[in-house]
Amino acid sequence: MDKIIFLMIIAGVYGVLAKTSGYQRLVTVIAEKLKKYVVVYSVVVSVFLFILTSLFSQTFVVLAFVPFFISILLKMNLDKLTTFIITFGSVLVGLLGVTFGSEGVTSFDYYIGSDLTEGLNYRYIIAAVTVVLYNFFICMRVKKVLSETKKNTKNSTIEDDPFKVENSSKKNAIPVAIILFLMMALIILGYIDWETNFAITAFNEFHEWLIGLAPTEDFYIISYILGQQTTALGNLKYVFILCNIFVLAAMLIAFLYRMKVNEFVQAFYDGVKKMFKPILLFVASYIVFGVIVSVPITSTICNWIFNLVEGFNPFIVSVCAFINSLFSPDLGYTGYAVGSFLTTVYTDQMQLVNAIYTSIYGLIQLFLPTSAILVIGLSFMNIDYKSWLKYIWLFVVGLSLIHISEPTRLGMI
């Protein structure tokens, strides 16, 4: 439920931003300044989204950045499929190359009785190979699109932008740029667990000092204002807190650019409407998941496959990881379903098991329509699933071959 509300809030906020002259100017200026460096910018955006997905404790939070990049890339005259590849595609690839992040990995580790460092070295290797290979595909795609542009072929129009951000030469973009930068900083600092993952204690120490401020005895003013449940940066796990902050930021931007109340409400509603269909498909993916879970077909199949061999066999584990992830948009449930079995049978091989399950889960999310982020992105940008599959199949095959051969070199097979 929290993710549905988050998606609606993000869409509403960007609906307001799209009607704000300062935001229009900001997007226009960035697109114009970087138009000579489209390939470089595409790679930077892709790597940025990949890293955030790989590190964030909550995957859906990364989607807060995506509409901004979509508007810029489309103004660079990239087609909407290429724009999807660079934005939503990079988030999906980030799930495949996850290191410290993702609520799914955290839940999976909980159910198999390990922590995020379990199999981390293997996940580093997978992440490095994945991001390099995917950005090679992006470079090839962008260069192809740019060559079409030189032939006077227009690849995109404002209609391809879900929020239809118009070109603008009016108004100062600095206020909206500052607010968006602060929002970006808050998200990055809030959803990366700095202390657990990188032994950076500054944010927790500052939080303890701030909450402990008391002008008089037993009157902790900051704690009273912010509430007892306030957590330090780096410890944010849910998206509700961002919903409130995003709405307040949108209201501030609307006020600074003199948007009327009725215009604000209409723009917010228009933005939310664009997310109705993606949300329905998102819910549908979880309904399919619920139906599959109610009939334990995958567990029965996996139990039979596991019993085909004795001892640890990475190929067998990979096949079962594929089957377990096939209809599941939630890696945490996979851990719940098979965690006790894996920890009992493969006690000495849990690092490899961890790496196999997380990478296979990410690979599935790239191409199957049960992937929540995939169906949200395709619907949001009005892209045919076949077009995405036609593009991504070669990357999936290449990565699958690497997934088989690399474990052999590392002694996994």
Q: Structural class given helices, strands, pairing?
A: mainly alpha
Kindly state the percentage of residues in helix.
over 70%
Indicate the overall shape.
globular
Helix-strand string: HHHHHHHHHHHHHHHHHHHHH
Q: Give the oligomeric state.
A: single chain
Q: Can you tell me the residue ranges where pLDDT is under 50 for at least 5 consecutive residues?
A: none
Describe what this molecule looks like in 3D.
By secondary structure, the chain is mainly alpha-helical. Helices cover 70% and strands 0% of the residues. The chain has helices at residues 2-18, 21-33, 38-55, 66-75, 80-86, 88-96, 103-111, 120-150, 174-190, 194-198, 202-211, 221-226, 240-256, 261-273, 276-294, 297-306, 314-326, 331-345, 350-367, 372-380, 385-409.
The gist of it:
The chain is 70% helix and 0% strand.
Topology diagram in text:
Blueprint: H1 2-18, H2 21-33, H3 38-55, H4 66-75, H5 80-86, H6 88-96, H7 103-111, H8 120-150, H9 174-190, H10 194-198, H11 202-211, H12 221-226, H13 240-256, H14 261-273, H15 276-294, H16 297-306, H17 314-326, H18 331-345, H19 350-367, H20 372-380, H21 385-409
Keywords:
21 helices, mainly alpha, globular, 413 residues, 70% helix, single chain
